[in-house]
Amino acid sequence: MRFFRNKRLFIFLIGFILLVVLVGYTFKDRIKVTFAEEFINDAIGWVQYVIHTPVNFTTDVFTNIKDFRNTYEENQVLKEQLSQYRSLIYEVQEVNKENEELRDVLDLMESDSIRSHEAIQAIVIARSPERWLEQVTINKGKNHGVKANMLVMTADGMIGKVQSANEHTARVKLLTGFDQFNRISAMVSRDKGRNIFGMIEGFDEETNSLLFRIIEESEQDIAEDDLVVSSGMGGVFPAGVPIGTVKEVTSDQYGLTQIALVEPSSDMYDINHVIVLDRAVDQVDESSEADDGEEEDNEE
Amino acid sequence: MKKAYLPLILLVLVIFEGLAINLLPKEIALSDYLIIAHWVLAFLVYIAVYYDLEDTYYSIVYAFMFGLLIDVVYAGVLGVYMFSYGIAIYAVHGLRKILHRNFYVLLLLCVTAITLADGLIYLMYTVIGVTDMIWSDYLLRRLLPTILANLLFLLLLFPLLKKRIVRWSEEQLDHGN
Q: Which residues form a coiled coil (chain A) (predicted)?
């Protein structure tokens, strides 16, 4: 009996050591995952993709029925907006053409904006049941060109970044799970005067908003409903992707800098189709060395 | 072949856990309450209560295996679910020796398992800095809704699975009579 007691204690201790080693080895945001994990993730991801389709269909049917109720009012509003858009489209075309011509004249390279990035379409096939981690799985991986630290967005704006990529699937960390280790350099653009630059420093659960610390202020102060977009200054994420709108402006705990509470512009719950932004091919050659260095410390 | 039924069901549950949030109404999913699907754990409680004998440890082995699978597929941090599920099911396996096997004991053991497992997950994620929720918030906003939601799942499984698991247990394990 005494021997069995000791054996149990022994197993318990071994288990505890194993736990500490496993968690300690894996808890940092890893970019590379082991081969075994990749294989399991791809295999499960394939099944998830197959199952995801009918499940989504049924849940969609229920939301569609709900949507029918306010179709009429929505239609009225949309019609109004549509007529405004027509004139806007014309304007944008003109501006685009002018922009291109002026760039040609100046012999400028395309800037590091959203336009110079290749978009990879993907579908969200699963969402981690562990809500603290705020992760989703998408159905595109290394085979399709997805790599760690790429920006993931929906039509409304940024939703997160690729945490690690497997062969056929990838794990995406949502904005709501960002912490001080996942910063995004962002800005509020101004017509006149300088733009406001700062950093998105993570997600605050109490106010349900992103914290935007302002580093470089402008003559025109930040105001509510300003649109915050990524600035592309960190060299990891492209510029010009909408992140959210300013909800409230406060000062930090020392009263030295301003912090804006930013409400994400895309819905973090109802994500289905996403776009992964890949760096354009010609840019990779120029900046691949710089990228490697930045990806190591996994920060914007 | 029949021995593969239990792991297969567990595997299917792991895959469906990834879609669990779609089943919640949007109002609840977006609210402050965090409801976590512990379907695999609920099914492991069935295995521990109705399948395992006193000297067989299938439920504990499955708990470690599928806990690790959840870690790999949904968390990226390995070991947290594996050991939480393992220890919770070990406790259930120990408790069922001293309790009668009936419906109310099953509910009680399920509540015990979820409290223990989710509490351990909270403890470990707090230590490594994934969450900084204070414990009173955790109790009200996560643990309580999670227990209720998973009990509901357990009740839904009961008419489907209870007799089958008992039958599989009698067919596959040597009951010594």
A: 85-112
Number of Cβ within a 10 Å radius of residue A135: 21
Instruction: Extract the tokens encoding B110.
Output: 């399920």
> Rounded to an integer, what distance in angstroms lies between the CA atom of residue A136 and that of residue A153?
13
Question: Of A124, A148, A65, nearest to A267 (Cα)?
Answer: A124
Structural domains present in chain A: 184-264 (2.40.10.350)
Write out pLDDT tens, residues A10-46.
888 898 898 888 888 887 767 778 888 889 999 999 8
CA distance B38 to B41: 5
- Interval A177-191: pLDDT, tens: 888 778 888 888 887
**What crossing angle do the helices spanning A35-69 and A71-106 adopt, rounded to 10°?**
130
User: Residue B146 in contact with residue B42, Cβ under 8 Å?
Assistant: no
ipTM value for the complex: 0.84
The answer to whether the pTM exceeds 0.90 is: no
Angle A173-A178-A184 from CA coordinates, rounded to 5°: 100
Computed over its alpha carbons, how large is the radius of gyration of chain B? 16
Q: Which residues of A lie inside 8 Å of B (Cβ-Cβ)?
A: 15, 18-19, 22-23, 25-27, 30, 33, 37, 40-41, 44, 47-48, 51-52, 55-56, 59, 125-133, 135, 137, 163-164, 171, 205, 269-270
Q: Distance (Å, rounded) from C-alpha A291 to C-alpha A78?
A: 43
Q: A225-234, B106-115, B128-137: which has the highest mean pLDDT?
A: B106-115
Q: Looking at CA atoms only, how far is residue A31 from chain B in angstroms?
A: 10
Query: Closest by alpha carbon to A172, among A183, A159, A156?
Result: A159
Token pair 């075309």 is found at A93
CB B53 within 8 A of CB B96: no
